[in-house]
Amino acid sequence: MASFHLRNFGCRASQADGASLKRQLLDAGLEEAESASASDVAVLNTCTVTATADAEVRQLIRRIHRINPTCKILVTGCYAQRAPAEIAGLEGVAWVVGNSHKHAVAEILAAPAAGPRSRDLGSAKVIPITGGSRPGDERAGGTPVLPGVARVAPADGPCGGQSAQVLVGEISDEFHFAPAFPDDRTRPTLKVQDGCNARCSFCIIPDVRGPSRSLEPARVIEQVHALHERGFKEIVLSGINLGSYGRDLDRRISFLGLLEKILVETTTVRLRISSIEPMDVSRDLIRLASAEPRLAEHFHVPLQSGCDRILRAMNRRYWTTQYAERIHAIREALPHAAVGADVMVGFPGETAADHETSLRFIESLPLTYVHVFPYSRRPGTPAADRPAQVEGSTAHERGRAIRATVETKRQAFLATQIGRSLAALTLDDHADGAPVALTSNYLKVALPGAELTPNTLLSVEIGRVVGGLLYGYPAAVSSRSQL
């Protein structure tokens, strides 16, 4: 029996893809190995949102090939969709399978001699699915760019003396879904939406993930039931652009409607929204979250920049005044909610004045945490060709300033939690030997002296803050279906 080792990179949607991949591989008769060093095949489910993400994958490929030269490496996911030739040129890579054919990975590995749509899948050759390369498709150092029209770039690198097999095509409108096999013992991710129709000027995701498409509501309900029956107390709903859920199915279907349907038709204990765009944070969604204890008190709302001029250059579809209105509405309705954001620094053309404007805007918001990252040039995006690219050292300093500002906010928020009783779920994690729980409002709490297994619902009393971690003790373990 062939063995495999799966590694996932990137966002929660990608992690959910990886969980489904793992289930398919096991169902196909492959055996999971603990490490790539002990496996016949290494499956890398990749991200390509930044150049750092790409580099991390390449580094891992080289390491796997060095420690286990007989291990065949299959690379799939967003990086595989964007730059198949670049990956296929790395020693040790046997297959490059884009998002367009990720659903066929198990079939490829389980029956390499007769894979999908080709009797030659097991041979050392590129497999064109649709189209061919077009003039002008290679930019920024020869990396192929894969927008809407599908094509396959030839592999020219060695893999045991042979060329890697490349399977990349146009991403269809179909939502390929397989029931998850959660690796997380406490908080499984259920991907209900994939792809994106927005065209932010810095983002490659619409090209590598395809158009927005949704899992039918009935299938979502089916999966929530299945996860609840397996004992999970919290389910994280994820997608590439969650707010666009349902628009491809029916005008009457919406993400808000999906949440209401789950809450009415299932008994799952807690739902958490992974991330949602500012213009999709409606008053009705905020009202639902404030009235329904089964919805986590947590909103993650990407900002990207607090400067209107840069937002326009990014092709973001809101003004800072609109963003602020929604964040303040959340805080008014849910005074103790976690409110997070993504912020990009060093976007092409961002001046010192633009950065200062963004910093002051972020300072004015009741945010509890921020993910700050430098702009990363993605070949094929409009921003990649813009003049006035910002120096990396400058972007680093701007990021440091924003993190320092938000850290002050976070510490103040943590202090307001002392003395409160919070609904929490124990994780498969420890801090200083103590079990750790995650609260509804997205705070980790260490519980010294408590003997609790992961996936236990409880109320915790918050006693103190040390650094960025809360410490408390269990007030009550829930024996009910909800807290």
Search tags:
single chain, 483 residues, alpha/beta, pyruvate-formate lyase- activating enzyme, OB fold (Dihydrolipoamide Acetyltransferase, E2P), 3 domains, 6-stranded parallel β-sheet, 5-stranded mixed beta barrel, 13 helices, 23% strand
Give a description of the structure:
The protein is an alpha/beta fold and 483 residues long. Helix content is 30%, strand content 23%. It has helices spanning 12-27, 51-67, 78-82, 84-88, 105-110, 205-209, 217-229, 255-265, 283-291, 308-314, 320-333, 352-364, 392-416; strands at residues 3-8, 31-32, 41-46, 72-77, 93-98, 138-139, 143-144, 158-159, 162-163, 165-167, 189-191, 193-194, 213-214, 234-238, 270-273, 298-300, 338-345, 369-374, 421-431, 434-439, 444-446, 457-466, 469-477. It has a six-stranded parallel beta sheet, sandwiched between helices. Residues 113-161 and 479-483 have low confidence and may be disordered.
At CATH's second level, what is the architecture of the largest domain?
Answer: Alpha-Beta Horseshoe
Strand order of the largest sheet: 2-1-3-4-5-10
Any idea what the CATH superfamily of the largest domain is called?
Answer: tm_1862 like domain
- Remind me, CATH topology of the largest domain? pyruvate-formate lyase- activating enzyme
User: What is the share of helical residues?
Assistant: 25-40%
Kindly state the mean pLDDT as a whole number?
Answer: 87
Q: Structural class of the secondary elements?
A: alpha/beta
Main sheet properties: 6 strands, parallel
Shape: globular
Sheet-strand content, in percent, reads 15-25%
Can you count the beta strands?
A: 23
Please give the CATH class of the largest domain.
Alpha Beta
> Number of helical segments?
13
Domains, number: 3
Radius of gyration: 23 Å
